[in-house]
Amino acid sequence: MTVKSNHVTIKGIKDGLVFLLEDECDFEDLLTELRYKLEHSHTNILAGPIIHVDIKLGSRFITVEQKQDILEIMKQKGNLLVRSVESPELQLEEVLGSNITVMSGMVRSGQVLHHDGNLLFLGDVNPGGSVTCTGDIYILGALRGMAHAGFEGNEETVIAASHFAPTQLRISDMISRPPDEWETWETRMEFAYLQDGVMQIDKMSNIVRLRRDFNMFKGV
């Protein structure tokens, strides 16, 4: 049996249930619908004896805190036993590289965070805030301000975010067009990169392919 709405799909399998969570919607909207499904939908499925649950997140990256948020909601039903949470099957070292610095916090309006090297930032970049790096920029949070990767001229750097809604992007010397001029614009997990001197936007799940293409081009 399948229960489907915009963001949460519940499927019965031989030995339990699978929760398929959409990977392109806002995370808070996802949590809201998950709560609603558990409280109001198909109580004949979500009640009774112990049921094993597998949660699949598609291509969505989540933080430890976000995973805990999901598990806390699942605990609403005492008979649901979560046995697995599947996030993207990506090798982080292949994507991010071994030389990356992790920082956390919030970049507020008027603030500039600068880093030499590759940066994994756990937090939000608010409108009016800026992040600049000589290497790649990965944001596990919302990018609503400006991000500049490859600050010293590296055109193979990327900018990625869980919630991708920047006011401006820069890679090396290339500046993106304003968001309202782009053909499509959705706040979802995406990344920006340069291809033939033009800035491109793609789904985060395709970043592994891009990295492999870069390495093949360089003969690595």
UniProtKB/TrEMBL annotation:
<protein>
    <recommendedName>
        <fullName>Probable septum site-determining protein MinC</fullName>
    </recommendedName>
</protein>
<keyword id="KW-0131">Cell cycle</keyword>
<keyword id="KW-0132">Cell division</keyword>
<dbReference type="GO" id="GO:1901891">
    <property type="term" value="P:regulation of cell septum assembly"/>
</dbReference>
<dbReference type="InterPro" id="IPR055219">
    <property type="entry name" value="MinC_N_1"/>
</dbReference>
<dbReference type="InterPro" id="IPR036145">
    <property type="entry name" value="MinC_C_sf"/>
</dbReference>
<keyword id="KW-0717">Septation</keyword>
<feature type="domain" description="Septum formation inhibitor MinC C-terminal">
    <location>
        <begin position="103"/>
        <end position="201"/>
    </location>
</feature>
<dbReference type="Pfam" id="PF03775">
    <property type="entry name" value="MinC_C"/>
</dbReference>
<dbReference type="GO" id="GO:0000902">
    <property type="term" value="P:cell morphogenesis"/>
</dbReference>
<dbReference type="Pfam" id="PF22642">
    <property type="entry name" value="MinC_N_1"/>
</dbReference>
<dbReference type="GO" id="GO:0000917">
    <property type="term" value="P:division septum assembly"/>
</dbReference>
<dbReference type="InterPro" id="IPR013033">
    <property type="entry name" value="MinC"/>
</dbReference>
<feature type="domain" description="Septum site-determining protein MinC N-terminal">
    <location>
        <begin position="8"/>
        <end position="85"/>
    </location>
</feature>
<comment type="similarity">
    <text>Belongs to the MinC family.</text>
</comment>
<comment type="subunit">
    <text>Interacts with MinD and FtsZ.</text>
</comment>
<comment type="function">
    <text>Cell division inhibitor that blocks the formation of polar Z ring septums. Rapidly oscillates between the poles of the cell to destabilize FtsZ filaments that have formed before they mature into polar Z rings. Prevents FtsZ polymerization.</text>
</comment>
<dbReference type="InterPro" id="IPR016098">
    <property type="entry name" value="CAP/MinC_C"/>
</dbReference>
<dbReference type="InterPro" id="IPR005526">
    <property type="entry name" value="Septum_form_inhib_MinC_C"/>
</dbReference>
